[in-house]
Specification:
It is built from one helix and 13 strands, in the order H-E-E-E-E-E-E-E-E-E-E-E-E-E. It is mainly beta. It has two domains: 71 residues, Nucleic acid-binding proteins (OB fold (Dihydrolipoamide Acetyltransferase, E2P), Beta Barrel); 95 residues, no CATH class. Strands 1, 2, 3, 4, 5, 6, 7, 8, 9, 10, 11, 12 and 13 form a 13-stranded mixed β-sheet that branches. The longest helix has 27 residues. This is DUF5666 domain-containing protein. Keywords: Signal.
Length: 208
């Protein structure tokens, strides 16, 4: 009887090991990107070829209704109380939040993605889209109090922090050499489709 129980247990153990191996393989798969940053290599029909910032060749499907926006530089002084902004921040040495970049939304984009969430631009970075409630000007930059529906955050923006805004764009901006950030989603066949693309104007790299 003992021998039969051991013999019966072996197939069960093998099945369990296969199941664990399959689960582990799925767990080790790289996460599907939601943003692709890089340089356009070509636009061929509905396929946008991009060299990502990490050096990978990425092909994105471009739908007919793709949203394209231009990104252009503005001045730190263009950030006003009442402006709706997005800012990538990282923790500062004093426990505050230092801006890596700030993008000022035009009025017709007010409310876009309002709130604060983790971001993938830099380690420990977060993205906050909010309204500027206060702005204190100092010798080395501005300190902004930004408020969103679930809270607020105090952000230091140095004089060297890139500040940009959105301008109207189109597929004609998707030229070889242009720097972009593409917001993407996976298709059923495993390929990626761009839902929105921001293109730097005049050689600018979108800083967000």
């Amino acid at each position: 009887m003992t021998i039969q129980r051991v013999t019966f247990a072996r197939p069960l153990l093998a099945v369990a090991m296969v199941a664990f191996s399959t689960f582990y393989a799925f767990a080790q798969k790289a996460p599907v990107p939601t943003r692709v940053r890089g340089t356009i290599e070509s636009l061929d029909g509905d396929t946008l070829s991009v060299k990502s910032r990490s050096g990978e060749d990425v092909k994105l499907h471009v739908p007919s209704d793709l949203m394209v926006s231009g990104i252009t530089k503005i001045s730190l002084s263009d950030i006003k109380v009442g402006s709706f902004v997005g800012t990538t921040t990282v923790p500062g040495p004093d426990g505050g939040q230092n801006a890596v970049e700030v993008h000022v939304f035009p009025e017709n984009m007010r409310g876009t993605g309002e709130g604060s969430r983790p971001w993938d631009l830099k380690p420990n970075s977060s993205m906050t889209n909010a309204t500027v409630a206060e702005s204190v000007v100092g010798n080395d930059g501005h300190t902004l109090l930004v408020k969103y529906k679930d809270g607020e955050k105090k952000v230091f923006v140095s004089v060297d922090t890139p500040v940009v805004t959105y301008v109207p764009g189109g597929k004609s901006d998707l030229k070889a050499g242009a720097k972009i950030i593409a917001f993407v989603k996976p298709l059923p066949d495993g390929s990626l489709e761009a839902s929105r693309v921001s293109v730097g104007r005049d050689g600018l790299t979108p800083p967000m």
